[in-house]
């Protein structure tokens, strides 16, 4: 027979003692599962290796696969217990949808290259970038979704909602704008200001306006100590005149992470942050 616990798991019941008249329940058939004759799309089979804490329910939710399908494909006899290291075949039926939404050969230029950090898994990466798990699997032709390693390169498809948008950027520092974006006159000479200057006390924390990767950190003529972050969607941000840079090239930072301290290095008459937003290398108005 089928245990009460399995029926609770399959139907995600909160109260096993409270059922409603006419309520529909899925009762998994041991070793067989439920017929899926209405399935219009051939599933893509991937292999998953069970890790500590996994249950059939948690795996089914993570990969958006019905528990009954997992039971059927794997011909499971004991469905209330999984063993660490156990291999499961997962029939992913929305792989084509994932490709359409998040990955195609034509859209390859839009994707993000990501290097896996220690302790991460595909699930946590998909949540961080708001990208469907199936889209990452499809983009990287992954067959065992549980086996990724630190330092491994992944292509993260730029699905709608995951792209960096200037409207989502936060202020890198609090302060008064001392010089706006655009044309300005300095010592009687017209000059185009590619960013904005924000004044503040030396040593004030400067934070990343959006999550991204440090593409440059060092000293640059005019800018002094400067940091450049690369973001999704072709955007980059520039943070200049810092008293000290606190990040390393290649490092990934989150929105709001402290990356530098305000200063007056380079061509600066007082303590302030020179802040730029660029799209495909061209400056845009941070206030737009």
Automatic annotation (TrEMBL):
Protein known as: LysM domain-containing protein
Alphabetical list of CDD domains matching this protein: LysM (cd00118), M23_peptidase (cd12797)
Pfam families reported for this sequence: LysM, Peptidase_M23
PROSITE patterns: LYSM
Gene Ontology molecular function, alphabetical: metalloendopeptidase activity
Provenance organism: marine sediment metagenome
Lineage: unclassified sequences, metagenomes, ecological metagenomes
LysM domain location: 46-90, 112-156
């Amino acid at each position: 027979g089928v245990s009460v616990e399995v029926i609770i798991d399959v139907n995600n019941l909160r109260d096993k003692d409270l059922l409603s008249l006419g309520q529909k329940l899925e009762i998994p058939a041991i070793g067989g599962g439920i017929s899926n004759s209405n399935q219009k799309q051939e599933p893509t089979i991937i292999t998953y290796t069970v890790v500590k804490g996994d249950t059939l329910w948690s795996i089914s939710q993570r990969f958006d696969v019905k528990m009954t399908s997992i039971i059927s494909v794997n011909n499971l006899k004991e469905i209330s217990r999984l063993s660490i290291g156990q291999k499961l075949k997962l029939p992913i039926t929305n792989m084509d949808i994932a490709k359409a939404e998040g990955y195609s050969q034509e859209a390859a230029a839009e994707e993000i290259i990501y290097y896996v950090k220690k302790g991460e898994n595909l699930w946590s990466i998909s949540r961080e970038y708001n990208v469907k798990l199936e889209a990452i699997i499809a983009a990287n032709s992954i067959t065992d979704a549980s086996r990724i390693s630190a330092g491994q390169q992944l292509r993260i498809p730029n699905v709608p909602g995951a792209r960096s948008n200037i409207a989502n950027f936060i202020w890198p520092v609090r302060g008064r704008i001392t010089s706006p974006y655009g044309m300005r006159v300095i010592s009687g000479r017209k000059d185009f200001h590619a960013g904005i200057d924000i004044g503040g006390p030396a040593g004030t924390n400067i934070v990343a306006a959006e999550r991204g990767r440090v593409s440059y950190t060092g000293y640059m003529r005019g800018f002094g100590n400067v940091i450049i972050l690369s973001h999704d969607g072709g955007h980059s941000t520039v943070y200049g005149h810092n008293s000290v840079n606190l990040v390393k090239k290649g490092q990934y930072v989150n929105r709001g992470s402290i990356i530098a301290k305000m200063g007056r290095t380079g061509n600066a008459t007082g303590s302030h942050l020179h802040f730029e937003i660029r799209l495909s290398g061209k400056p845009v108005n941070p206030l737009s």
